[in-house]
């Protein structure tokens, strides 16, 4: 699957050149003419990197960056500002907003591609870390639930055994089917609890009605 890049540039020729360069280098590219247009495109397009011109009508690159970095859904996208401004003051302003990198126009093609490759590596690393943290949180939660259920389950198993011991042979015979169902149910619960306690590699799978569940075996 190709890595996705969004180019946000109001100048038609520059937008065309960037799109062709990135497409030739095997990226999937979407283009926007300003920040407002970019926000619409992002509803259906999920890039790893955004290249945005600083100065644009309607919504400029820095304002777009500010909006996206404040949104949990978009904040991990690697955001590169394209600008003719080269002063330290301007760069500091952009970094304070949350831009990840700057390229001064006119952009040298190989440098641009190198920055994009770097941005994609950083994006991928951030998502790997988030997935690892999520997996750890799932394991911790599963273990906690497992331990919480295990104590009352142990009491239930002992009580069931005690009740069975107190029954005479005639009662055991009459209740044989019920006792079998209860024992099998308790064993299934116990197996599930052990899977939760010793869960190592949680997998979240699709269930029904667009719901998801943890696969334990």
Automatic annotation (TrEMBL):
The cross-references to InterPro entries, in alphabetical order and at most eight, read: Bact_response_regulator, CheY-like_superfamily, HisK_dim/P_dom, HisK_dim/P_sf, Sig_transdc_resp-reg_receiver
What GO MF annotations does this protein's record show?
phosphorelay sensor kinase activity
EC numbers listed for it are 2.7.13.3
Q: Where are the transmembrane segments?
A: none
For this UniProt record, give its keywords in alphabetical order, as a comma-separated list: Phosphoprotein
Q: Which Gene3D superfamilies match?
A: 1.10.287.130, 3.40.50.2300
Q: Which CDD domains match?
A: REC_OmpR
How is this protein named in the record? Answer: histidine kinase
Q: What is the scientific name of the source organism?
A: Melioribacter roseus (strain DSM 23840 / JCM 17771 / VKM B-2668 / P3M-2)
């Amino acid at each position: 699957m190709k890595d996705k890049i969004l180019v946000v540039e109001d100048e038609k020729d520059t937008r065309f050149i960037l799109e062709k360069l990135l497409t030739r280098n095997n990226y999937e590219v979407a283009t926007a003419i300003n920040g407002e247009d970019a926000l619409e495109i992002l509803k259906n397009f999920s890039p790893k990197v955004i290249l945005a011109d600083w100065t644009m009508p309607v919504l400029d690159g820095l304002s777009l960056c500010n909006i996206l970095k404040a949104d949990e859904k978009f904040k991990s996208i690697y955001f590169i500002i394209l600008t003719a401004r080269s002063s330290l003051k301007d760069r500091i302003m952009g970094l304070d907003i949350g831009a990840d990198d700057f390229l001064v126009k006119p952009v040298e093609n190989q440098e641009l591609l190198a920055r994009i490759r770097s941005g994609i590596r950083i994006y991928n690393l951030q998502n790997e870390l988030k997935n690892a943290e999520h997996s750890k949180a799932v394991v911790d939660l599963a273990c906690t639930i497992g331990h919480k259920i295990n104590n009352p389950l142990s009491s239930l198993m002992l009580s069931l055994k005690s009740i069975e011991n107190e029954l005479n042979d005639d009662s055991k015979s009459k209740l044989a089917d019920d006792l079998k169902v209860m024992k099998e149910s308790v064993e299934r619960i116990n197996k599930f609890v052990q899977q939760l306690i010793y869960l190592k590699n949680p997998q979240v799978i699709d269930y029904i009605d667009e719901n998801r569940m943890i696969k334990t075996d």
